[in-house]
Specification:
By secondary structure, this protein is an alpha/beta fold. It is built from ten helices and nine strands. The chain has a seven-stranded parallel sheet with strand order 3-2-1-4-6-7-9, with helices on both faces. A two-stranded parallel sheet has the order 5-8.
């Protein structure tokens, strides 16, 4: 029986690259986007989904299960970036970031679990980030959502193991996508941060332009889908591999000094 896979946030970037690769490999793939009509025809069916809304999540899964009778793999990818100094960011902006990047992922997982538990099988693949392993200056709340996903997924791994459901985090480094261009900027800029923030965002932009292709992440996801016993964590890209290792072994002042030099904060 062909495996059915749902990929959230599949209109561009990692989500789209992953959905296209999985479809080419013969899986039954559904993608999601908030506005399917706005993106035109895709190579795979797209379902409407706003991960911030309980009603939208329910409607999406009702639509999915009207077309198929099982869900084998959920790829939880939907999210956006919010930039700005932590002090510049309002609580409303911070909460909105969590509502999409963290609680949105939780909503979708909760919607997928009843069918997976009934089947006593399934894979949940959460797209995390290097920003969930080492914080990015002027991306405090984006980093916080990715750190939160790390803890959530690790606890979920233990809870779902008895039901035959695996949980995996994919942790890419910088990826050449339009996430940065589509990022939201904190609405209350403070002049005291302006120069440093400009340097950091320029550095991030350069790193994204030199980053790995989203297809690299898609290939890792394909390997997880095909694995009988996937691990909890997979890092993708050189920066995602060596930087957390360095953070683990280096004294904090040494590691922090390197981060500050990298982002022009020395």
């Amino acid at each position: 029986m062909t495996q059915t896979i749902l990929v959230t946030g599949a209109s561009s970037g990692i989500g789209k690259a992953t959905a296209l690769l999985l479809q080419r490999e013969g899986f039954t793939v559904f993608g999601t986007t908030r506005r399917p009509d706005a993106i035109g025809a895709q190579a795979f069916p797209m379902l409407a989904l706003d991960v911030r809304s309980d009603a939208s999540v329910k409607a999406c899964f009702d639509a999915l299960f009207s077309k198929v009778d099982h869900l084998d793999v959920l790829i939880d990818n939907a999210g956006y970036a919010l930039t700005g100094a932590a002090e510049e960011t309002t609580l409303a902006e911070a909460k909105a970031q969590f509502e999409t990047n963290f609680f949105g992922a939780v909503r979708v997982v909760n919607a997928a679990l009843p069918a997976m538990r009934a089947a006593r099988a399934g894979k949940i693949i959460i797209i995390g980030s290097l920003a969930g392993l080492t914080a990015i200056p002027f991306g405090a709340f984006y980093s916080a959502t990715k750190f939160a996903l790390e803890g959530y997924a690790e606890a979920l791994w233990h809870e779902l193991r008895p039901f035959g459901i695996s949980v995996t985090l994919v942790e890419p480094g910088f990826v050449r996508t339009h996430l940065g261009e589509a990022s939201q900027v904190a609405a209350g800029p403070l002049p005291v941060y302006a120069a440093a923030e400009k340097r950091v965002l320029r550095t991030i932009g350069d790193a994204v332009s030199r980053g790995i292709a989203p297809e690299r992440v898609a290939e890792r996801v394909l390997g997880i889908v095909r694995s009988d016993q996937p691990r909890l964590r997979y890092r993708v890209g050189g920066d995602a591999t060596w930087l957390p290792r360095l953070k683990h072994v280096a004294p904090w002042p040494v590691f922090a000094a390197g981060v500050r030099r990298t982002f022009g904060l020395s």
